[in-house]
Fold this protein.
Amino acid sequence: MLRRSIYKSPAQLRLMVAPGLATAASLRAAKNAVRAGVTPLELDRLAEQAILELGGQSNFKLVPGYRHTICANVNEDVVHGIPGDRPLAPGDIISIDSGAIIKGWNGDSAVTVVVPDPSRPELVAEREELSRVTEQGMWRGIAQLAQAKHLNEVGAAIQEYILAQGPYGILEDYIGHGIGRSMHEEPPVFNYRVPRKGPEVKPGLVVAIEPMVTTGGIETFTREDDWTVATVDGSMSAQWEHSVAVHQGGIWVLTAEDGGAAGLAPFGITPVPIA
């Protein structure tokens, strides 16, 4: 059996723009609705509506056994959290992961939001800093991709930044991935330094870069719902993710409405639209 190439053609890259934008729209709708009293199920409905309005469908719902548009990970829940009906409380930190599929091509992205709590400013500040460090780790990984020769340089850049910010934990059991016809494809995208170089970074490579970071340990367990992964020590977690394409003109963040311009500006990198 011939192995499918991890590199997409220019025509295939163009087809990945629409699902990326639909994914971004779903996260914008959910993020804007986060407040104390709202339930993750309500966020789920808003995310799905945004995808449907752009002619897509949720690719999460195509995963066998999963019936929701988003994964909603609250506090110590790290990844794959099933959105439920418990209202968000002041001070909660929630990561929202979403994806869309249009014409057989996929997008995948995640954001983290902290629910305001004026009565506990120190707690909110600590959780917002966790989110900021995770997001900036992701952008450093994306910036490294723009100049890397091999993919695993991305993980080294993410790890170097995050560990320099404080005693954070970077999950090792859950990493980024290639994306295209399937939501999860080769190659793996590590969020930490590994000894091998990984595949060559060249036009056609499309990857989802998604660091998951905790305020404590990195050991996890799966809850009784067989989906939700949580930290063993109860430490808080954050996840940020973007799907990014490398093409002849440079890089383009498919799941950012501005192509990644704002996030990459501090690194002197200007993303180039896919022609």
Q: What stands out?
A: The chain has a mean pLDDT of 97. The two ends are 32 Å apart (CA to CA). The chain has one domain: 10-267.
